[in-house]
Amino acid sequence: MKCNQCGSVLDTNVSICPGCRKEYSAFDMYEQGKKQKKSLYIKWAIVACLAIAIALAAAFLNSILQSTKKKGPDVVVYKRGGTTYVYNLEHKWTFEEEIVLSKISRDNKRLFYKTWEGSLKYIDLTAEKDIQTIDSSVINFVISENGDVVYYIKRDLDVNQLFKWTKGKSSHVADEVDFVATSRDGKSVLYATSNNKMYLYINGKKAFEERKNLHKTAQGP
Q: What is the pLDDT of residue 190?
C-alpha cells in the first residue's frame, strides 16, 4: 500500500507516512487497501482475458491452417480428340472414354458423365476404380453441389422422363420434361414440361406451378 500524496510505501502498523509525514486513520488505510486489491484483481482479469483471447485466436488460426491442408484427390482429368482421360495418381488407375457431357462435384471427388451412347455414369475419384452406370438413353442431367443428388432426363418410348438419383437409387419424377435445374443442395428442383407448364418442388413437395397462357383470337361472323 502506498501514500496517495508522495507515493511512499506505507507500513500497515504505522499511521504516518515515512515520506511526507501525512497521517492516516485506520479507515483510510482500510479503504486504500481495498482499492489497491481491486486494482490488482482488475489487472489479473485483464491478463486472463488476454490469455483466453490469444488461445482462441491460436485455435482459430490452427483450424484455418488445417482446413487449407485438405485438398481434393490426386486426379488428373483432361480431354483430347473427343476422348476424356482420367488418371488417379493415388490409387494408380486410369480410364478413357468418349464423353459428351460431364459434371464434377465441388470437392472434385465425384465425376458424372454421359457417353455418346447416352449412358449416364458415375465414378468416385477418391476410391479404387469403380465406374457405375446410373441409367441409359439419357439426354441431359444436373447435379447438386456435393454430387449426392442427380436429376436427369431420359428418353424412353418417345417420352422424356425426369428421374432423381440419390444414394445409388433412381426414382421417377415426371414425364414430358424438356428442361430441368436444381439447387446447390439438391433439395429443390425446377422443371418444364412440353405442355407449357413449369413446376418447382422443394423437399419433394410442390411449391410452385405455372402454365403459360395461350391466347386465341376470336373470329367474328
A: 94
